[in-house]
Each structure stands twice: as structure tokens, then as C-alpha cells.
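Appendix B.2, paired examples.
Example (i):
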Amino acid sequence: MAIAIAAHIIAAVIWVGGMFFAWMVLRPIAATRLEPPTRLNLWLGVFDRFFPWVWTAVAILLISGFWIILRVYGGFSSVGPHIHAMMTIGIIMMLIFAHLYFAPYRRLKTAVGSENWPEGARHLGMIRRMVGINLILGVITVVVGASGRYLI
């Protein structure tokens, strides 16, 4: 169980921490100091490197989460409401990420490849909003996971 919990926490830290860095540190600098071609290419490079980590985190979160619930606790009926909340919010986050990856991110790649900067900026804006939503959900999930048994 210790390995599953450690893997679960590390995966959550990588995903939520990466979103926090992108939103709070990189975005303000890129948005204010870089011209559209440079900014869009920078973000595309960031996403190309970060998104494989997110997919890995999603897989680890699902595998470790279900393993802990099913093998350690014997199923969902044996865990508290905070675990149900964490699982629900986590799956919503995964669905948002999957949409982000297969729709606006793919369109961003196409727009940047064809040097269509206004279209690329539009798709980057969509990605930014989805990452912002997922960052909020991720922080809530971390709080629920860490202290939920005392809150709910």
C-alpha cells in the first residue's frame, strides 16, 4: 500500500504542480514579453514535453487509486466520502485533459505548423482556460485527499 500511495501522490504532484508552474509562472512571462510566434512555439514545446508526463500521471493515478480502493479497502463501499469526491473530481480532470489534448492542443499544433498565429492564439486561449479549471480542481482534489476525512 505504501508504494501505491507514494505513486499516487507523486503523480498528483507532477500534474498539479506542472499546471501551477505553467499558470502562475510561465504564462505571465510568456504573455507579456513574447511576440505571438515565439510565445506559441514556446507553449507548444512546453506542452510537447509536459503532456506525456500528464498521461503517465493519469495512468498512475487511475491504477494506484483503484488498486488501493479495491485491493486494500475491498471496494468503494468501504471508503469515506472524501475518497469518492477525490475520485469524481480526478476523473472530471482526466476528461478535461483528454479533451484538451485531442482537440485544442492538436489544433494548436496545426495552427503553429502553418504559422496561423491568430488561430494558434485562439486555441492556446482555450487550453489556458481548461488548464485553469483543472488547476482549481486539482488543488481542491489535493485538499480533499490530504484532509478530506476531517472535512467531509
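Example (ii):
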Amino acid sequence: MPAPDTTRVQLRSELLRGSNHFMRELLEGNAHGVMPFFCECDHAGCFAPAWLTVAEYDHARVQGTSIFARADALARAL
């Protein structure tokens, strides 16, 4: 059985991923420029915007990667 904190982090991640998917669906055929999606990091309380084009978002989903705000993405690269 997973620890409560692990379950909470997974649920939060799934909620943000689902919210991003819903926002993407609303943009179908009407997306220009960059759009704010939710950062899907595992930091509790992080709702930083991840500014991506719809094409970048779609590419991340095809690759199976999560969406991260710029600061989180830079920290993960180190």
C-alpha cells in the first residue's frame, strides 16, 4: 500500500494533467501563440504556469512526458 503522501502527490499530478488535457481540448482549432498550462511537478502547492504552444504541449504528451514550469524544468536539468 502506498504511503499517504505518495498517493496525494499522484492524485495531484493526475488532477493537473487532466486539467491540462481539458484546457487543450477547449483550444482545439483556436490556439495561437503560447498558452499557460499547469506545472505538473510534485511540489505541493505549485500551480506555476508552464507557457507552451499547443504543438509543444502535444509533443510532450506524445512523448509521455510531464509539463513543467520553466523554473522546475531548469531545476530538473541540473
